[in-house]
Each structure stands twice: as structure tokens, then as C-alpha cells.
Amino acid sequence: MSALLSIRNMTHYFGGLKAVSEFSYDIPPGVIYGLIGPNGSGKTTTFNLITGIYRPTQGQVFLEDRDITAQKPYLIVRAGIGRTFQNLRIFGGMSVLDNIRAAKQYRAKSWMLSSVLRLPGFMNEEKRIRDESMALLDVLHLADRAGDLARNLPYGALRRLEIARALATEPKLLLLDEPAAGMNPKEVQDLMKLVQRVRDEFKVTVFLIEHHMKVIMGICEYVKVLDFGTTIAEGKPDDVGRDAKVLEAYLGKKGAAC
Amino acid sequence: MNSLKTPRLLFAAAGLYVVILVMNLTGLLNDYFLHIINQSLIYVTLTVSLNLINGLTGQFSLGHMGFAAVGAYVSGTITTLLFNVKPTLVNYPIFVLALVIGGLAAALVGVLIGFPSLRLKGDYLAIVTLGFGEIIRTILNNISVVGGPRGLLGIPKFSNFHVVFVVAFVTLVVVRNLAQSSHGRAFLAIRENELAAELVGLNTTRYKVMAFAIGAFFAGVAGGLLGHLLQMAHPTQFGFLGSVLVLIMLYAGGVGSLTGSVIAAFALTFLTETLRMVLDSLSDMTNLPLGDWRMVLYALLLILIMLFRTEGLMGTREAKIVVLKEDQL
Amino acid sequence: MGSIFNAQQIVNGLQLGSIYALIALGYTMVYGIVRLINFAHGDFFMVGAYAAYGAFFLFNAFLGGSGLPMAAVTLIVAMAAGSVVAALTNRFAYKPLRNKPKLSSLITAIGVSMLIEYLFSALPFIGASFRAFPVLIEQKLYKIGTATISNYVVIDLLVAATLMIGLTFLVRKTALGRAMRAVSQDKDAAKLMGIDVERVIGWTFLIGGAFAGAAGLLAGMTYPRIFPYMGILPGLKAFIAAVLGGIGNIPGAMLGAYIMGLAETFASAFNSLLGEGIAFAILILVLLVRPRGLLGEKSADKI
Ligand SMILES: Nc1ncnc2c1ncn2[C@@H]1O[C@H](COP(=O)(O)OP(=O)(O)OP(=O)(O)O)[C@@H](O)[C@H]1O
Ligand SMILES: [Mg+2]
User: What is the model's pTM?
Assistant: First the structure.
């Protein structure tokens, strides 16, 4: 089966700094794949390159064999890639429900004029968007906070809201940047179950970055390890966890995190 | 059509309209007051339209009066120089057409100004819009057909309470309906976090340019109304200070709150007039030019709002009648 | 007169550029350190001009005399006045907003600018009308080739050059300069290193204000009339010069200012409308083509 996402030989420089080096990854549909590495090893940059925030210095990104390299971010989203951010980027001044509805807007067909005049077509569409959004919030256990301002949610709920918002764009591929960051062990457990459930219910492929080895070991089918932008190991999580180079990269710099 | 589905605001507005009209007819409200109400309503249009750009979409325009200038000069040129019509009832279609064309011309300029907003944020955008406003003023100063620095004079007095009221109401409803729709949520998302907005599939470029275009359109119409109310259009009338006055109204009312914009536009227009009267009579008594103290007070007001009540009168809250009920969504 | 690109225009352009440079430096330093476009900066320039004006008449009445010593004293007064207004503005208008959204500071800055301008024009002993700036030093003209150079040109260039060299020394070699550079690189890291960030910001305003005040005196002397709104356009143009050079970058501000002075002089000689509009045309061009300016560094917003 051909890959859903295929990254080929991607390299990116920030000035003189080689943040990502000759990175390749084939991710088949329906899986949960991972990316790990110490701080500053280029993981987030990889996501930024996939989603078109930066243009890679070299290399290509394909989604279902379509070249999406360095397209405009919103077009990449429309092609089927949703993502969350390591440093939360919620729409804080909007309600939880509106965070989701904003993410459904790009699929809406009503024109501005129709929304100004409140024509029936627009009203029906609004109702549909609202119902779908509520259903999505329900799955992520956020329905009871739908009317609250997003910035008033507790941290763990914000992480779920980011996932919900990414799902609202109806992606084929979901990129999660450290979804378990800052969570306590119980929350981490819940999150792992949630990610698996999301994968099954929404038929999405998950590609996630994590520092928590537990998450990687628990739910990832395959991982790659980055260090200084270079892939130093890859394989099944168990094997990678025993790899000498990986241990050195991690224990040498931030053993405590694992 | 829209108004049928938003009865509360329509009823409130209709009530206000009738009350003011009756008070004017019975002499409770003299023509001078009506004139100030007309000006207030024009400022409502300007402030609400600026709110779409600065408040809802989170951009920052310092050249809003530049759009008004375009509308005033274009519509004024049509009624005064092109058709040279008297302000009679049969000629109103020409006036309305002129207003719309003026608004469209302003919208076109708004699109042009919207483009820098694609690459620039906050303070830089402020400077560029300020620069655009100044460029418009400089150009008007140098076009002799429209009077150059003397301004375009002898514009027929088409603007009256009815027209000005309807325009302010329509502007309010359009911006409100937009804000409380899926498109409005796109505007808000851009304000809240532009990168995240782009990454939920929104074409932020298009929305930002749209916000500028729509905001500029209504500002252009407001400018046209002002020109046809004061019977002239003058380059300095639409300069930086004018833009700042609208900005003060926006922030005093609460950026993001349409209710606040309406209240502040009325309150500050009345304050302006009151101060003008008080200072003028003081000037007469003391033989000193005191007019500039008004602007000193405005400057202080702006600073104090920023220092002590950044969120303005209303913050982002709205009066009940401005909010659509959920089933009206 | 021949070509508009003659020696005379170059001299005039450099003279104007010197004044822009002194103003632009304040913009760029403040922006570099607090990331604020200090809208009121052009008004510090105006305050400097008025202070020099007042100082001249005061000293003339009590001590008499004119010429270089008098000019030196008025220069000091102008710089001090610019500093004081800048420091007060920073303390009372900007400091309370340091941790609020950037736009509130910008709007406050607009308010401060209006306040200073209208206060000056409302105060009965200052007033809105133009005033002729007194002759501090007798003007002398020298003919060199096709160009006529006055001693004012020499003074403007010399004062600007001296101040700019002084500033460069201060920024490169002194503890304050190092602290300023550290704060402009990374405010939080500077704080952790034990730098008193507020003190550095205060000094930046003092120095920027002094430079603007000096520019006010030079402008008053060179284009001898002053009025409360005289700071608006030069302020805006100097800001654009700072953007052109790369805002936050000190040599950039100087470079941008001289380019601006020359461009404006040439453009005005060509056509007056162009002269009025050239600054904004440059601004828009820079922002579209090279937003970081000629010498500015690429900003790294981490995502
Ligand atoms: N916009 C940028 N400009 C310049 N350098 C950058 C930029 N973004 C990231 N970097 C640098 O690129 C390298 C990789 O950063 P990246 O954020 O991808 O790391 P990461 O693996 O996600 O780390 P972490 O675990 O801390 O999130 C780092 O050295 C970082 O400082
Ligand atoms: Mg990261």
C-alpha cells in the first residue's frame, strides 16, 4: 500500500543552522507513527515544513502522491492535514464552540452576502455546522464547556480543544506536537486512549511528536529519532528504546525526561 | 429581509427614529440638535466600520478617514461636478448612486491598503495605513478640479436625518450579522491567532482584504454622507486627526463591541459640540483662542483610556438587542 | 541649473539627512529596546526647537551676546528639554503599559503626541502660529564649484556627526551600551543576567530625546521657523528612514536618514507633489520588497 504522507530528503536551514537534515518518512494510512528527539532537534520544524509554514531548503512532501511542498498552509490543510501546536495556539477570546466552528468554516459554502441577509441556505448550513461541532466536542469531552471562553479552560482541556479543532478541519492526517506536554500521569493515560479512539472513529492517520517515552511505547507503531536534525535511529518503539545512539542522545542531554 | 429576522434591533431602531422625528416636528428638538444627531450617526457608521477592521479582524488601520475622503470626493464629484443636481426628491436616486459609487471607490482603495496587511502586523500596519491616508490627502490637495487645498465646495445638501439614520442602521446590521456568522468567526480567528487561523484552512489573506474592503466601503459611504451634510469636502477634514477621532471613539466604546461603538460615537460627538460651545463662549469672553484645549482633552482621554481602562466602556460585551438569539443563527 | 542631481542638491540632501538621522536614531533605539513605535518622538524634536528658542531669548536678555558660545548653550538646553519630555513620557505613559498588548502602547503614543502638540498650541505664551527662529550664528556663504555652502551646512553635519560618533562609542564600548544591546537581543535573558531593564529603557529614552532635541535646534536654525506641529512630518520621515535602514539597527538609521534626505531633496527639485509623497512611496516599497530594511536582520519568530 502506498504511503499517505511521504517526505523525501527534506532539509531546512535557519541561516547557518541546519535544523532538519535529509529527513525522509513514509507514513501509511491508518497508523500512529511517532517522532522523538531531544530539545531543539528539529521536530517542530519538521511539522512546520510539512504544513507549509516554512519552505524546505530541499526535498519534497507528498500527500497521497500529490506534491504539496511549500504550498500555502491553508491549502495544505484543505488537502487533508490538520495539526496542533506545541505552544498552544487556541482562539482564546472565542468560545470553545466557536473555536471548532471557525475550523469548519473553510468548508462552508455560503457567501458573505448570504450570511448578512441570513438567507435560508445560510441558516441551514449554520445549523449543520453547529450540530457537527457539538458532536465533535462531545467526543472530546468538551461539550459541557461549549459556551465558555476558550482561554478560561484548564490546561488539559486546552490540549484536547486543539485536537478537536484540528479534527474539525476533517483531516486525513493529524499532526500532534507534544500532545501530552505538561500533563500528569493520569491525563497522559487518558490522552493515549483518546488518540487511539480518534484514529479509529475519525479514520485519521496520526503522526505525533512526544517527549513522553510512555506515549511513544504505548501507542506508536513506528518511530524515528532526530538529533541535531539528523535521523539517528528508527524502527519499532521497543527496538529504538534499546538503541545505543538514542540512549546517548537522550541520556547525554535530557535523561530525566524519559 | 435581514431586518425581518432581527426584529429586536429593528424595533429599537424604528422606535428611536420615530421618537427623534416626533421630537423634531413638535419643536422639542431643534434643528441644531438634529444636525448633531446626524453627525453622530455618521460617526456611528465610521466607528462600526472601523470596528470590523480593527476590532473583529484585529488589524490596525490609522487611515480610516482616508476612505471617507475617497467616498466624499467621488460622490461629491458625481452630484456636484458631473450632474450638478439640486437636492430634491426626484434627484435622490442620483445621490444614492453617487454614495454607492463613492463607497465602492473607497472599497477599492481599501483592497489596495489591505495588501500590506498581508505581510505587516500591528504597529507597522498602522504606519502604512497612516501613510496611505496622508498620500490620499496630498493627492486631493493637488487635484485642482476638486478644488485643491480649498476643497470641493457647493455640494448639494442631500444628507438628512432619514438617509443618515438608515445608513447607520444598515451598517450596524451588516457588521453585526457578519460578526455573528461563520465568516465572522473567521475574522475573529484571525484576530485571536493568525497562524492558527491559517492552519484551520482559512484563507486569511482573503479575509483580511475583505475586512478592509467592507470597512472601507462603509467609511466611503459615511464620507459621502458627511460631504452632502456639510456641503463641502476638504482635504484636512479627512486627515490624520479625523482618523484618530474615530479611533478614540472605537477604543472608548470598547474595541470589538458594536454597542460600544454606537454609544461612544454619540457621546463623543455630543461632547465635541458641547466643548466647542463652551470654549467658544469662553474665548469670546476672554478674547483668547481656546479651541485647541478641546484636542488637549481628547488626547488626555485617549491616554487615560489606554492606561486605566484598555477595554473601553463595553470591552467585547454587547447589549442584548444587538446579539442574535441562537435560533436566529 | 542643469541636472537636478547637481552638487547643490547633494549638499542640501546631506544637510536634511543629518537632521533626519538624529531623529531616526531615537526611533530606532526605542524600537530596538521596547519594540514600540514612539509616535511622540517627532514632538520631542519640536520641544527641542522651542526650548532652544526660549533659551536664546532668556540668555540674550540676561547675559547678552550671541555666536558660538550662545549656540552651544542653546544646544544643551534643547537636548535637555528633549530628554526630559522623553523621560516623562516613558515614565508616565509607556511604563505602566509595558506588559499590556503592544497596540495599547502605540495608541497611547498617538495620544501623547497629540497632547504635546495641542498643549503647545493651546498654551497662550506659545500658541499655534509660526515663529521666526532667531539668528544664533551669522550665516556665511562659501562658493565651492557650482555649489553654495553655508556655515549652517557645516554646523549641521558636524553636530550630527559628533553625536553619532558619540552614540556609536557609547553603544560599543560602555557598560550601558552593552546592556542596551543585551536588552534589545532578549529582554528576559538580560533580566536574568542581572541587567536592570527599566533603567536601560529609561536611558534609551533620555538619549533618544536628547538627539531629537538637538535636531530641533538644528532644524530651527536651518529652516528658520517653528510651530507646534513641526514635528509631525519630520518625525514620520525619520521613522521611515529608520525602517528603511532596518528598524532597531543604529547604523541602519543613519544610512536610511541620509538616503531619505537625498531622495526628498532630489524629488522636490523634480516635482513638489513627488517631494511630498516620496517618503511614503519609499516606506511602501521597503515594506513590500525588504521589510527588514537595508541593514536589518531577519527576525526569528519561533513557532
Ligand atoms: N524560526 C526559527 N528561526 C531560527 N531558528 C529556529 C527557528 N525555529 C526553530 N529554530 C531552531 O531550530 C532548531 C530546531 O528547533 P525545533 O523547534 O524544531 O526543535 P524541537 O525538536 O521541536 O524542540 P523541542 O523539543 O524543544 O520542541 C533549534 O535549534 C531552534 O532554535
Ligand atoms: Mg518542538
Answer: 0.89
